[in-house]
Write a structure and sequence with these properties.
alpha/beta, TIM Barrel, two-stranded antiparallel sheet, 15 helices, 11% strand, binds coproporphyrinogen III, cytoplasm
Length: 348
């Protein structure tokens, strides 16, 4: 580990595998239904409206930072926001997720997907600028959905457990598949560049459902496109750390690292010590508390937090997080207690 620069936040230091004054912690879905102030603000406001209103994006992003004392903010948005911005009819239904009115299943539908331009998402740029001004020393994480996870919503038309139509397209019409993913990679790359240009200090690429694939299919059909997204950020802003996350990806961690990540996100199925060995000494790890354990008694939860930090010590850098998003039924006081405990334990 090299010495931290004086102005570097604990979060950015850990991402860069530098020594930090404390172990950084933030939570995926830290903004959302677990917070009463979020539920109050969202009363009668559709998700896509909230995601396209700079003042709401800003306020919702700041809520968990104020309440929990986390080391990073994550932009309040959704992976389908850039798809809506290029005119795809997609809505987010409470308790369900994204619903696509006309699923994308053939060459003609793929050909109709146009590139994203920065001014398609000017409400995101505006929100990021407001946030950077408000956040002071707390870094803002920008994010995008990775091509495979976006493709799954577009092809299936909504959430899917099996990703059956997606896999059928991938194998049955590989050229159509690669063209779809190339277009989605362009959109995700531009969405991240917009956020970085407006002041996001790090980015996370969410390939939430990549764990449904074999390592061979991931390498052939997905990794080149995710690599293109991460490369777009690296070329525009090499100093901005890139986090690459998926669920159930224990068998994909080396490939996700090699796609161009500085930090690899890990769910609770893989111990961080194993993840550290899989991604090697040139990457930090992020994770990996099972979000369900936030509903367990504090003594049980605290033991889990200590175990995860001890395993994270074996990595070149450790950003504490959950293995997936905060569940809506979570008591936010438990999140605050986890932040406090992680900060009191010795840094990695
Ligand atoms: O982490 C954060 O605090 C930032 C906000 C964020 C949201 N979506 C807000 C949101 C992020 C990073 C996302 C990304 C996202 N969206 C992913 C990747 C991360 C992951 O969870 O794996 C995925 C797969 C989606 C698609 C999506 N959007 C789903 C599956 C859902 C849940 C549907 C539900 O209601 O249970 C959404 C909706 C969504 N995105 C909500 C929030 C706060 C809930 C909407 C609400 O509050 O009404």
């Amino acid at each position: 580990m090299s010495t931290p620069t004086s102005t570097e936040s604990p979060f950015l230091a850990a991402c860069r595998r530098r020594q930090a004054g404390r172990r950084p912690v933030w939570f995926m879905r830290q903004a959302g239904r677990s917070l009463p102030e979020y539920r109050a603000l969202r009363e009668g406001v559709p998700m896509m409206t909230a995601c396209s209103t700079p003042e709401l994006i800003t306020e919702i992003t700041l809520q968990p930072v104020r309440r929990l004392g986390v080391d990073a903010a994550i932009l309040f948005s959704d992976i389908v926001v850039p798809l809506a911005a290029i005119g795809i009819d997609v809505d987010i239904r409470p308790g369900v997720g994204p619903i696509v009115a006309e699923p994308v299943r053939d060459e003609a539908a793929v050909a109709a997907i146009r590139p994203l331009a920065a001014d398609d998402v000017d409400y995101v740029s505006a929100a990021v600028r407001m946030l950077v001004a408000e956040l002071g020393d707390t870094p803002l994480i920008g994010f995008a959905g990775a091509p495979f996870t976006l493709a799954s919503y577009l092809v299936e038309g909504g959430p899917s457990r099996s990703h059956a139509r997606t896999k059928a397209l991938m194998h049955g019409a590989p050229q159509v598949w690669h063209e779809l993913c190339a277009r989605l990679a362009g959109i995700a790359g531009e969405f991240l560049r917009v956020q970085v240009a407006a002041g996001a200090a790090a980015v996370q690429l969410f390939d939430s459902w990549a764990g449904a694939l074999s390592a061979a299919d991931y390498a052939t059909f997905v990794a080149p496109h995710s690599a293109a997204v991460l490369r777009a950020v690296a070329e525009a802003a090499p100093e901005v750390p890139r986090i690459h996350f998926g669920v159930g990806t224990g068998h994909l961690l080396p490939a996700m690292a090699e796609a161009g990540a500085d930090v690899v996100g890990v769910d609770w199925r893989t111990p961080l010590s194993d993840a550290a060995a899989a991604v090697g000494p040139n990457r930090a790890v992020q994770g990996n508390l099972d979000p369900a354990l936030l509903l367990a008694p504090w003594s049980v939860l605290a033991d889990e937090v200590r175990r995860i930090c001890a395993e994270g010590d074996e990595a070149a850098g450790h950003v504490f997080n959950l293995g997936h998003g905060v569940l809506p039924e979570t008591d936010p006081d438990m999140l605050a207690k986890v932040v406090d405990l992680v900060h009191r334990l010795p840094p990695a």
